[in-house]
Structure formats: structure tokens, C-alpha cells
Amino acid sequence: MIFESFAESLSFFLWSTFIISILLGVIVSKTNFCTMGAVSDMVNIGDYGRFRAWLLAIAVAILGVSILEYMGLVNATDAFPPYRAPQLIYVENILGGIMFGIGMTYASGCGNKTLIRIGGGNLKSILVFIIIALIAYYMTPPFPDSDKTLYSVLFYDWVNPLAITLNSNQDIGTLIGGSENAHTFRLISGLIIAAGLLFYIFKAADFRGSKDNILAGLAIGLIIVTAWYTSSNISINADDDSYSLSEYYSEWDMLADNDEGKPASGRTLSAQSFTFINPIGQSYGYVKDRFAPSLLTFGLISVFGVIFGSLLWSLISKSFRFEWFVDSKDFLNHSIGAILMGFGGVLGLGCTIGQGITGVSTLALGSILTLISIIFGSALTMKIQYYKLVYEDEATFAKCFITALVDMKLLPSSMRRLDAI
Q1: Could you tell me the pTM of the whole model?
Q2: Is 395 a domain residue?
């Protein structure tokens, strides 16, 4: 996709993102694809249907990225965010993932689900959105009249020194085959992992008979791959040379006549696919700076698109309805959940979609750690909530916490404090 001007290429980039995002919103709404719901079904009723749908989306995304990258049609190494960066921020991946998993459980859904619920008329999710936006935004840009950010104040001094700097990129293909053979081993490892996931997914007869779950997994995985492909293959013909959007931005002074139409940042022009916590934060900056066109990014447009797609489906299916908090406890739970998602989503470099599918599709070690941590944080929270509900005042938090860890096989059964349910 070669364009004759930066303006044309950027316009195509943003409009194609909006269309793909609408499709994502429609599919998620239509199939009830929900990562928190997947963990809930698995933990509470032993139903792995929606969890397998999530894994199917991951498998399709891994398969698509592995093949297209081998063909030179996707650039997942120079992506935004830098999933494969040599610096492994494992503490942030694990801590951020656990915080996000706990948060999405309290807030009744992840970042993507928050957008879906807003489109369906859920007013509770607007509060969740606002809280996430404020925290996610100020985790990176400094506070007004300050050089401090939430990240620098709360995390940098003790988290950053724990990061490990590798000698190569952190994706599985590079770690196994080395930098020189990364191209081939990314394909091999991607095919093997995707095949293993597909075998596990489709060996379940119940899942094979679930059209919505299969549709959700296939469609969402393909949407992730489509975004990777589109963002990797937009170029501008300038001075008889071809430049990607990010390359053109870095050479702006040499190639452009003036600053008209120049985006605020070049990082957000790199190859990428869907993630939602950082873009929700971008939405606050967009409003704060009076809707400056230079702030329009893939992520910001995807937020608008998913909400619109969800709204569209809710109107078509006649499922649109307003919903407010049941009581003060419901309000408090959603607020706490939103706070944890805001911090965790930025710390872990993504959400259940951003790291759980998009990041994992690059086979980055940090993305895999974050995904596992999100599932752990959510599952642990659900078990604690369940024991509190059943035993009420008899069960202290400590008893519920220890018993939940026993149920998850992380502590010996002799340490159980409450009878299994």
C-alpha cells in the first residue's frame, strides 16, 4: 500500500483502523467474547468454552503473525509497544498482570469489555473508563507543572533495577535460534505452539459444537493479524524512495515542507495491533488538548471504533440498555477495579487483548508472563470472592486467600482453612 503523500497514508492508516475496530466491537458483542468471563466460567463452573475461544484467538494470531513475518509482510520486532525489546521487565509483567487480573474482576471486565459495555449502554463502565484514562495517562506523561509521573513516583526506583537486559530480543524464536536464525525459528516455534493450542482447543467436543465461540476465536485472531498486516505495509513514496510512516516521521525535516499534518509522536506510527489501556489513557490527553488532530493514533481510533461497533450491534440486536450501580459497594468495586487496571495495564505493557493476544502473537516472553499473571490474578480473586460469599462472616480474607491458593495447587492441602465447595 504505497501512497504519494504522508497525509494520504496517515488517513488510510486511521480509517482502516476505525473499520477494523468496528468489526472487533461487533464480533465481541455478538459472540459475548469476554476474557474475564472466560476465567469466571473456568473457575466457577468448570466451563472452558470461552477460555478455549480466547486460546483460539491467540493461536490464530500466532499462526498469522509467524507466517506473515516469515514472508516479510509483518514487522513485529519494531512494533509499538516494543513487545520483543531486549529488556525483560519481568517484575512489571508479573505485577502488572496480577493487578490487571484483580482489577478486571472487580470492574466486571477488561479494557476491551469496558468499551463494549459502554457501547451497550452500561453507565458503570463510563466511570471505569474515566478512572483508567486518568491513571494510564499520568503513568507516562508528567503531572502539570512537574517532571514526575505516577510511574516515576510509585514504581521506577524499585522496579526498574530488577529488569534483565538480554543479549537479543526476548521472543521465543530468537531465544532458541539466536539473532542470526531468528527469522526461521520464529516461524518454527510459532507453528509448533499454534498447533499445540489448536489440538487442545478442538479436542473438546463441546467446543466444536459452539458456533459463537469458534466464530469469536477465529474472527478476533484474524482481526489482530489484519491490524498487524495493515500497520506494517503502509508506505510513502518520497524522493523516489519508499518510507514507512515511522521512517517518514523520523525524516520529517528532510522530506516535508512544513509541520502541517505532523503527528505528535512517531512511536505510535510503528507496526502494531490492538491494545486498550494505553489508548484509553490517550483519550484523556486527546480531550485535555482540545481534540488536536495530531494526537489521533491507531490506539485512540481503535477505542472509538470498538465502542461504535458495540453500539451498532446493541441497536441491531435490540440489547441496548442503560445500567447503573446497584449500590455503594458496586460503585466501590468498580472504582477499585478501574484503578488496578489503569496501573496494571501500563505496568504490564498491555491488557487481555494487548498482551494476551497481540503481544503473545509475537511470542515475546514478557507477553506470556503477563498473560499468565492476568489469569492468575483474576482466578485467585474469583475464588476469594466465592469463599467470602458462601462462608460470609465466618471466613476472613486470610482464610479465603490461603484456601484459594490450595485450590489452585499452589499450597499443600494440609494448609486448607475452609472446606472445599
Answers
A1: 0.96
A2: no
